[in-house]
Structures are given as structure tokens and as C-alpha cells.
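Database export, one record per block. Field names are fixed; values are copied verbatim from the stored entry.
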Amino acid sequence: MSATPKKSLMFFAGRAHPELAEEVAKHLDVTITPQTAHDFANGEIFVRFEESVRGCDAFVIQSHCHPINDWLMEQLIMVDALKRASAKRITAVMPFYPYARQDKKHRGREPISARLVADMFKTAGADRIMTVDLHTAQIQGFFDGPVDHLWAMPLLAEYVKDSYADRQIAVVSPDSGRVRLAEKWSEMLGGTPLAFIHKTRDPHKPNQAVANRVVGEIAGKTCVVIDDMIDTGGTIAGAVKALLADGAADVVVASTHGVLSGPARDRLSSCGAREVVVTNTLPIPEDKRFPQLTVLSIAPLIARAIHEVFDDGSVTSLFDGNA
């Protein structure tokens, strides 16, 4: 008996961010596989796919926003259901990797939760992970299998370049840890000056940082503050105020993940930034939006990466032009 091997791409979406899933499906020119998903009275999640998935190349997308633990569990259950239904290869697509900030032990008796998440996906049956702008790149090594680490920087930098072409730009890292990323931004924007904010953070108080001073020459320039995520907005708002106080002409904030928890909306809308640019890796409902906010779509990039993985092509070529 002989058979010609054939490949079929099937696309599955969790319930966290249906708009992004539909946009990715549209760019891929596929439909989202229909499924039944509901919560039991005690909070347990049930998922069943309405079509056969045997032998398919499965891509499961889920954005991990609030309530993050529910959406993480739902994606794990979807992966497990696909494994037990004989999907040939399962790729967990996580535009925002959950628990990425817990990637090392700062003090004794702390967890490394980012590693735990990777282990759970491996146990559930994921063969591959696809994610956008990890908090730290070494998280790729936590998963025992291929990890496609996509960059939103080209998308954000292109927007800033087009929107502020007539300005003198300086790229600013909100802390010393993002200086290497700021260097890459500087290259993309044509060799602009660099600066960073010297800040202190109390390990006993999460989501709190104090911007101390600006290191670098930014007087009279339009400063582009770059970061991977904006959570409560305290760090970014403090950085914007410090830059304006130090003589910056204008401040633009560019970040991949708009978590925008709690007071973020009020802080960002009143800190003095001309524009806050994020992508739609996470859903941003109307009550979190404000006039200065610009949301760019990450869907075309995710769709192209899925296409390359399915075709056994090169994901690297999406960023540096070389396979």
C-alpha cells in the first residue's frame, strides 16, 4: 500500500481575542475551525472541535490577557484535544507569552513561571511555539522544541519613521536592560542618537519604578521611548515626564504589548506623550483607549510566519531578508 503524503493547515482560535484571530485567518486565506467551547459552573473549561483534525498541521492562537489563567488553561486544553485527535503537528501561537516577566529568580524561594508555562505546553502536546517580542530572549530555551520568536520592531519602527520623518529623533530605552534593543531601533531609524533612563525598582513592590535621571543628549529632539510591554504605565509615564523636564521637544512611546492594567489609561493620557503606539497582540477594549493611542496590527506578520512554518520556509527571512 502506498500513499502520497499531503499537508493540510488548520487554524484554531481561543476566545480571548477573536478579532486578531479572524484577521490572521483572513491573511492566511483560511477559516477558523469551528469548535464548541464553554465554561462549567465551577469555572472548568470544555473545548471540542467540530471537524476531524487527524494528520493536520494545527496552529492554535490565543492572546493571554486578563483573566490570564483562564486563557492559558483554555489554550492548553485545546492543544491536548488536538494531540488526542491525532493532529500531526501542533504549534501554539502566543502573541503575548504569559508569565514572561518571571524568567529568573531574583531572590530565594521564587518560581521561574515562564519555564513552567513552557513545560505545560510541552506536556499538553505542543510541538512548536510561536510568539512575539518575549520579555527576555532566553525564554526561547525554556521550551524543548522550535520557538519562532517574531519581532514587532520593524512594524513599529516603520510607523515612527514615516510619521516623524521631518523630526530630529533620539531613541530612548526606559531602563539599562533595553539598551541593546534601543541600538537596533537606532539602526532602523538611520543611526539616531541613544539615551536611557536610569531608574530604580523595589523588588518587594511589583509594578513600581522610579525614574531618576536621563543619560544621554536629548534636548530639542523628538524622543522615541521603546519597551516590550506597557502594564500599569508607571515606568513609561515617569520616563516621559523625565524626558520633557530634561528638554525633549516631544515624546513618542512605542511598545509591542499594550497590557494597560489599572491606572495605565489615565497615566499615559496625562503624562505628556504626543503618541503611544502599540500593536494588537492583546485586545484593547474601548475603556482602555485614549486619544493619543495608536494600535497597529500584528496579524500580517503572524500570518506570514505561520505560512513559512507550514511551507517549511524560513521565518528568519521575514526580518533580515536572508534565509
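Remark 1: The chain has a mean pLDDT of 93.
Remark 2: The chain has nine helices and 14 strands.
End of record.
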